[in-house]
Amino acid sequence: MLFRKSKKRVLVADDDEDFLNVIRSVLEFAGFAVDTAEDGETALKEIKRHRYDLLILDVVMPRIDGIKLFRMVRKSKRFAGIPTLLVSGTLSTERLEERQSEIIKRAEGYIQKPFKTKEFLDEVRALVEESRVSLKSS
Fold this sequence. Notes:
49% of the residues lie in helices and 17% in strands. By secondary structure, the chain is an alpha/beta fold. The termini are far apart.
């Protein structure tokens, strides 16, 4: 009997529909199962419903922004171990400084939009692999 390696499941939350469509295609082509959310509130509902191997959160989103969602996930015992890659487009200088310190301190990854597809996929794969390894060793 052949066993298929299960696909790693990723949630991408971003308020830019075009970005979501492109990233979904890129990740699915790379072999990931992908769910999307157009705002932080919807993303939170999805996180509660499914088990994810990686969260990709836009920093600036309506309702619940990526930083607030990231903090909520980290406070939860159930979800705290999910690696998170934060992505951001252009932010004002003061907002970038305030939020970037949080990103650097706690998130597993951060990438600035626009980015190269290879750079993005390398980061995603590294985070998913790192998570898998740390779960085995715990």
